[in-house]
Amino acid sequence: MRVLAAMSGGVDSAVAAALAVEAGHEVVGVHMALSRNRDQFRTGSRGCCSIEDAGDARRAADVLGIPYYVWDLSERFEDTVVSDFLAEYEAGRTPNPCVRCNEHIKFEALLDKATALGFDAVATGHYARVVDAPHGPELHRSPNEAKDQSYVLAVMGPERLARAVFPLGGYASKDEVRAEAARRGLSVSAKPDSYDICFVADGDTRGFLRSRLGSRPGAVVDTDGNVVGEHDGAYAYTVGQRKGLALGRPAADGRPRYVVDVQPTTNTVVVGPGELLSVDRIAGDRAVWFSGALPDDGWFDAEIQVRAHGSPVPARVRAVPDGLEVELTGELLRGVAAGQSVVVYRGTRVLGQATVSRAWRGRVAG
Fold it and tell me: tRNA-specific 2-thiouridylase MnmA-like central domain spans which residues (predicted)?
């Protein structure tokens, strides 16, 4: 099988490429240049796509003895992932750029280009498993719970999953992967993991948004409409946020307040007590379902997850046109924001995914 190995310059993708070679595939390594203004070096563990990362990927490819190329996907990345990130925050929603990157870049632009060039599959260093089943391939969680990435991969859907290879799917810890890299003589074996949003290398998301969207002063109000503070742009706030509110008037009962709503049309941020953040109903749109995942009709029991490293909670789920509906059957979820991904699981298996459009409290308190 001809396999295109996506090589970021980190240890995970290097070991994934090595395992693809070891499996007997014809492997070609590709580094995706996603930033228009790449730095020479990363800032510690922040960011990615630096010239240093491209060099590390090339050295790994040399050790493995495979061809290596750099593909400039920066314009596509800017037009899809970054533009979506800005538009979602501007609309008062909370996006997950890693989900959009997997959707539009790694398993759309990269995979489609690989297919056009005659490759059978794309291999990446994601921590997830593909399990063959009679109805088609299934996406499952990684045994490495701390690194599991099935949540951000759920958006890829069944057709793209059939052309994806995740060689790290069986590894239970990152230490095992680093040991594998060291054993193979890969210099990235001790390289720090990257974290945070890759295109916000300094970690200052609010500063990045302000640099792109400008200053837009407005009011912070409580749930009664009283002005309790000011902000420089409602787009910089997300439901559930507590820090950085700089409220001029404390709550009458002295309790902490959280962002409970962002209203972009009026450029208003609404704050209130923490109990207003608890929800047991979720609606999602742009749903993606995997083969054999849905029952014939109606509600079915499952677990749902709304954050990349959040805990799954029991729920009843049903598919609706272009979306899904969720009713939590156990604990409430706190601070669910429109724009987040809601992923549906049964055990380790991913059934489907949608983008949260609304979350609310339907269950009577008590």
Answer: 207-272
CATH code assigned at 19: 3.40.50.620
User: What's the CATH number where 251 sits?
Assistant: 2.30.30.280
Instruction: Give kind and range of the element (H or E) at residue 76.
Output: helix 74-77
Tell me what pLDDT residue 267 has: 96
- Pair (154, 10) in one structural domain: yes
Task: State the average pLDDT over residues 138-152.
Answer: 96
Please indicate, yes or no, if residue 210 is contained in any of the structural domains: no
Lowest-pLDDT choice from 35-39, 81-85, 121-125, 136-140: 35-39
DSSP 311: P
Domain total in the chain: 3
- Tokens read off for 323: 């979306």
**Does one domain contain both 11 and 36?**
yes
Binding positions for ATP are 6-13, 32, 125
Annotated binding site: 6-13, 32, 125
Scored b (16 or more CB within 10 A) or e, 26-56 reads: ebbbbbbbbbeebeeebeeebbbbbebbbeb
Residue numbers annotated as active site:
101, 198
Distance CA 122, CA 194 (A): 21
Burial classification of residue 283, based on how many CB atoms lie within 10 Å of its CB (0-12 exposed, 13-18 middle, 19 or more buried): middle
Q: Looking at the predicted structure, is the pLDDT value of residue 249 above 90?
A: no
Which amino acid, 139? L
pTM: 0.92
Tell me the one-letter amino acid at 23. A
Which range marks the domain in which residue 344 is found? 277-360
Q: Is residue 205 part of a domain?
A: no
200 falls within a domain: no
Per-residue pLDDT of 76-121, as tens digits, reads: 999 999 999 999 999 999 999 999 999 999 999 999 999 999 999 9
Which one-letter DSSP state was computed for residue 79?
I
